[in-house]
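Lab notebook, page 48
Experiment: co-folding of the full assembly
Goal: obtain a model of how the components sit together before planning crosslinking
Operator: M.T.
Materials (sequences as entered):
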Amino acid sequence: MRELRRTGDSPEQPPATGQFASRRNLLLGTAAAGAALLATGCTSNETKDESDSGKQPAGAPGDKPGKKVTIGFAGPQADHGWLNAINEEGRRRAKAYEDVTLVSTEGSNDTAQQIGQIETLINKKVDVLVILPADGKALTGVGLKAMRAGIPVVNLDRVFNSPQAYRCWIGGDNYGMGLNAGRYIGERLKGKKNAKVVELAGMDSLELTQERTRGFDDALKNYPNIRKVARQAAEFTVESGQKKMAELLQAQPKFDALWNHDDDQGVGAERAIKQAGRDEFVMVGGAGSRHSMDVIKADNTVLKATVLYPPTMAASAIDLARALGQGKGVGGLAEQEIPASLTLYSAVVTKENVDQYLPTGFN
Amino acid sequence: MLTAATDPGAGSLPPTKSPARRAVSRIDLRHLSLLAVLGALVVVGALTKPSEFLSTDNLQLILTQASVIGVVTVGVTFVIIGGGIDLSVGAIVALASVWATTVATQEYGLPGILFCALLVGLGCGLVNGLLVAYGPMVPFIATLAMLASARGLALQISDGRTQVVTVESVLDLGLPDAYVLGIPPLVLIFAAVSVLGWLVLGRTTFGRRTVAIGGNPEASRLAGIAVKRQRLLLYLLSGLCCGIAAFMLVVLTGSGQNTNGNLYELDAIAAAIIGGTLLSGGRGTITGSVLGVLVFTTITNLFALNNLQSDVQQIAKGAIIVAAVLVQKGRTSS
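Observation: model returned without errors.
Model output:
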C-alpha cells in the first residue's frame, strides 16, 4: 500500500502579504493564498477502492524458509510507471519471504549518488545485491567492487559493461519485443493482400528503441504481404504519443495495423485515434500497463494486444538473490547453480490470456 | 530615451507616424519573412503530399497542435518584451496538468480541473514574479529554480504515473463532436488568448508599460511606472497562460503526466524570437509569436506526413530557425 500523499506542500503560497502596497493587491493576494490552500487539498491521488495491499504476486513463493538473507536493492528514481512497478514488485516479493530482509536505497538517477548508495550497502555487508543501474556502463565499477568484496550481484535489466561485475543478469528483451509484436501482427494479417503497417516508436535516441524497431522489421520480413508504410518516434510521454499519432493518422488515411512501443505514450495515441474517429486497424502496445490490459480485456477499442516488458523481473531478481544467498539453484532446472544470464520472454497479451497477466500490469 | 515609453512595439520607428501607417509598416517589415516561410512550407506540403496536407482535417490538426504551445508562447512573449525570461513554463504546465488530474480533483469535474489548473499556473507565476520583482533575483535563475521544483513536485504528486482523466465532459471537449463550425474548442481558446494578448500589448497602458520597462527600466521608473509591480504582473500573466495551456493539454491528451510540457520553454522562446521579439526586451509582437508557433508546427506536420525520422527533423528545425532569423534580420535592417 502506497503511503498517503502529503497534502501540506504547496509551492504557491505567497510569502507574507504585508509586502503589498495597495488594498486591491492585498485582497488579490489573500484571495490567491486562500485559493492555494483550497487547492492543496486536491493533490490526493488515492482512489477510494484501492486495496491491493493483500494482493499476492503471481506465482507466489511456496518453498520453505531457509537461511536468513539480507538483500540490498538499488534502483533508479521511479519517474515513470514501469520503474515504479519495478520497485513495488521487488519490495512485495521480498516481503513475501520470511527469510529475506530487504534494504533498499532511495532511487536515484544521479550516477555518482547511486554509486555512493551501493557503496553504503557494500559496507553494510549485505549478503546479495540487486542493482538496476541508472546507467549500466557508469556503474560497472561499483558492481566489480561488490563482487570483489564477495557480495554476489544480480544485475537487473540495464546490463553492466563487464560480466565480472555481476553474478547473474536478468532483464527484458527489446529485440524480442519487436519480434513478437511483428509476429502477432503478421499472423493477424495473414492472407490480406498489400497490408499496411505503421510503427509508433519510442525515444529514438535510446538504443532500446532501435532494438525494438530492428526486431519488428525482422519479423515483418517473414510476411511478404505486409509493408511498413510509416514510422514516427514519440518520447514515451502521453503528450508526444498523442502528437505523433495524430500526425501518423493524417499521413496514412488507411492502414491495417499499428505497433506502439510503449503503453504510456499509448494513452496519448489512443486519444489521437479517438479524436480522428478511426477504427479500421488493430493496435498492439508495448510494456504491459494495467490500463492497456483493462482496455484489451474490455475489447472495445482498436487496442487488441500488448507485448510485455515485464516488471515482474524485479520479483524474479529477488528470487535469484535469495537463492544465491542460500546457495541454491533455480527450481525446475537440472543445474546446480543459478544461470549467469536470464533473458525474459516478451509474451503477447491478448483478450484470451489477459486475465493471467492482469496482476502484473503496472499503473 | 523616453520614446520607448510612448511608442508601443516599435522602438525603431519615429513616433510622428500615424498609428495606421505604423501598423502597416510593422506587418510589412516584421512578419513578411515569416509569412514567406509559412507560404514556402505550404507549397512544399502541397507538392509532396497534396491530398494529406491540403485538407480540412490537416488544418484542424496543425492548429490544434499549435494551440497548447501557442498559449504558452503568448505569455512568454509578454515576459520577454518586459525584459525578463521564463524558463519554468514547461514545468508549470506539467505541475498544473498533474495537479488538475489527481483523483481528488477529478471528483469536482470539469470546473474543478479547470480551476485547479489555472490556480496552480497563477500560483507559480506569483512566486516567479515575487522572486524576480521583489527578490530581486535574476529572472533566469528564479525561473530555473521554479523549473526544477515544479517538475519535482509534479513527479511527487503523480508518483510517475500517468493520470488518466475519466471526467466525460473534459474528454468530450477534445473530440470532433465539440467542434464549433469545424473549429476545435482548443483552437478557439488559442485564438481568444492571442487576440486578447494582441489587444493588451498594443492597445492598453499595460502593454505600453511592458514595452517601456523592457526597453529601459530606469527611464520607465523615472517616468513614474511601477516597474516592480509591472514585472510581477508579467510573470503572473505567463503563469496564467501556463495554467490555460495545462487545461488544454489535459483535454487534448485525456491525461496528466509529470513529463508534460517537456522543453516548452525552449519552443516558446524560439517561436517568440523568430517572431521578431527581442531577447533583451523592449520590442516584440503577439502576431509574430503566433506566426512563429505556426511555422514550427507546420514544419513538424510536414515532416511527419513525409515520414522523415526524428534525426532529420531536428537538424532541419535548427536550420530553419537560423534561416528565419537571418532572413528577418536582412529585411528589417534594409
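Interpretation: Chain A has two domains: 69-172+311-328, 174-308.
Next step: discuss with group before ordering constructs.
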